[in-house]
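Work Package 4 report. The design task specified in the project plan requires that, given a folded chain encoded as structure tokens, an amino acid be chosen for each position. We show below one input record used in the internal validation round.
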């Protein structure tokens, strides 16, 4: 029995989890530094119907695999009222590729068309309950002009980007919200590297 508990403890150490949010919760606001040196908050998005918040990073192979799709999400959905905000929560001390200068370079090299914010304290990732890169939290604005969480999980069901018939969870969720419907599914399993905690 002790061996079982020890094994479970070791496994638990691999993925830190925090309470975070669930679908229907108010979205935690934040004030984070963008790659252009300016700060970004949810309150800046007064004209948006919602926001696609994606926790991602520079070095994770899964995050890299999804970069072009994140760019496409912003290009295709921003004009429909749902812009992308990317947030890098990784500990840059242990993973120097994820430091702020690296973020600036990566965004320039890839032509990011969305804010790429640095969560250096990791408090925002903890507030949302993010565990992976990438990990999506789709927010929708209510009649009270406050954002709530409408979908949590993966961008799609094709991490390798080889299936033309992939299920595009985020795009489908935005389509549902713009039709005044709830996303179905409202949550999926985020697939990617674990967030590198301090």
């Amino acid at each position: 029995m002790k061996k079982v508990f020890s094994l479970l403890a070791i496994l638990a150490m691999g993925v830190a989890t925090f309470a975070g949010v669930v679908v229907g919760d108010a979205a935690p606001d934040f004030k984070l530094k963008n790659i252009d040196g300016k700060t970004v908050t949810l309150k800046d998005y007064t004209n948006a119907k919602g926001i696609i918040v994606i926790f991602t990073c520079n070095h994770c192979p899964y995050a890299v695999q999804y970069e072009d799709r994140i760019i496409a999400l912003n290009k295709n959905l921003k004009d429909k009222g749902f812009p992308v905000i990317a947030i890098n929560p990784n500990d840059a001390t242990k993973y120097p590729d994820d430091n702020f200068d690296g973020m600036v370079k990566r965004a320039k090299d890839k032509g990011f068309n969305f804010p790429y914010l640095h969560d250096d304290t990791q408090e925002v990732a903890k507030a949302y309950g993010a565990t992976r890169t990438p990990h999506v939290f789709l927010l929708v604005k209510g009649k009270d002009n406050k954002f709530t969480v409408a979908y949590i999980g993966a961008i799609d069901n094709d991490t390798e980007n080889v299936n033309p018939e992939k299920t595009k969870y985020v795009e489908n969720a935005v389509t549902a919200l713009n039709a005044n419907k709830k996303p179905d599914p409202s949550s999926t399993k985020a697939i990617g590297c674990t967030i590198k905690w301090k």
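The chain has one domain: 21-194. Validation will be extended to a larger panel in the next phase.
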